[in-house]
Design goal:
alpha/beta; Rossmann fold; 2 domains; three-stranded mixed beta sheet
């Protein structure tokens, strides 16, 4: 394993878990993060943390050369769907233009391998489930459009410049490192599981359920939750796959959906008491069911979720919520 893997956004939620997995697997790792969303404490003490922005091409190129970087895993992005609709320029500037600057720095330094953190948001409202990688891309949010644009850029850079890339389309990342120490810590928090657990811990008064009249078994939305440690595994496998392939895209999900009501019931069972819930109307643009087909990742990467059980996902998140640093 010669050279260093540079993890952009490696102080963030999924990025920090990927960093730990890379270290455990024997990789030399460095993190580039501007700490606008990430946390210094989430980066292991023995991993170099370079505080900087992916849009600073000269600084990133210098960093790549100084640290002897040979590949990049790219997480750095704004990722709030609602915010993206209000501030589209910020999202296109940070996500798309920032990625172009990162690619400029890589090209200037002779680095031609990248694993890209994409999203199921590229699909928008799917025509059917489970969703396959060749399903139509029709993102309904600015955030999803930025991810789809970057996937297109990587495809074009492969043809023009020989860039080798894997794009990983996550579904609903959840859970925390079973060994403790890192987990989900967003501000503002928008994800269902941490919201429920914060309410269970008395850190927020209640949690809203948006819509109970969907055409599902219990009337609530169904989503595909995948443990963050399993996502981290997939990044290592994707990086290794660039030894034998030049370009690929994979869905990362459990391949099974859980309803909002199931998540609430599981969380209440694990914390041992009721969680205050407020019923609210549907949110515009929320599909009834989003579930991934993960067969391609299983077949080509050899990836399989190890923490696929909903109890495992919520329990690790609850362990983190009870012990995480506050503030």
């Amino acid at each position: 394993m010669s050279g260093t893997v540079l993890v952009t956004g490696g102080a963030g939620y999924i990025g920090s878990h990927a960093v730990r997995r890379l270290v455990r697997n024997g990789y030399r790792v460095a993190v580039l993060d501007n700490l606008s969303k990430g946390h210094r404490w989430a980066v292991p003490q023995d991993v170099p943390l370079v505080v900087g922005d992916i849009a600073d091409t000269a600084y990133v190129a210098m960093t790549i050369r100084q640290l002897h970087v040979t590949s990049v895993i790219h997480f750095a992005a704004f990722s709030l769907v609602g915010e993206s609709m209000i501030e589209p320029r910020a999202y296109y500037t940070n996500n798309v233009t920032g990625t172009l600057h990162l690619l400029d720095a890589m090209r200037a330094s002779g680095v031609d391998r990248i694993v890209f953190s994409s999203s199921a948001a590229v699909y928008g409202e799917p025509a059917g489930v489970p969703i396959h990688e060749d399903s139509t891309l029709a993102p309904t949010s600015v955030y999803g459009r930025t991810k789809a644009v970057i996937e297109g850029i990587l495809h074009d850079y492969a043809a023009a410049y020989g860039l080798r890339s894997v794009s990983l389309r996550y579904f609903n990342a959840a859970g925390a490192d079973p060994d403790g120490g890192i987990g989900e810590d967003h501000d503002p928090e928008t994800h269902l599981i941490p919201l429920l657990l914060q309410a269970a811990a008395g850190r927020r008064p209640s949690v809203s359920v948006f819509g109970s009249d969907y055409p599902t078994a219990d009337g609530t939305c169904i989503r595909d939750y995948v443990h963050v440690d399993d996502l981290a595994d997939a990044h290592v496998l994707a990086l290794e796959s660039l030894e034998r392939q030049t370009e690929a895209t994979y869905n990362l999900g459990n391949g099974e959906g859980f309803s909002v009501r199931q998540i609430i019931e599981t969380a209440q069972r694990i914390v041992g008491h009721d969680i205050p819930i407020l019923e609210a109307g549907r949110r515009a643009g929320d599909p009834a069911v989003l579930v991934a087909s993960n067969l391609l990742a299983r077949r080509e990467l050899g990836w399989a979720p190890r923490l696929a059980d909903l109890e495992d996902i919520v329990r690790t998140a609850w362990d983190w919520e009870r012990h995480r640093p506050i503030g």
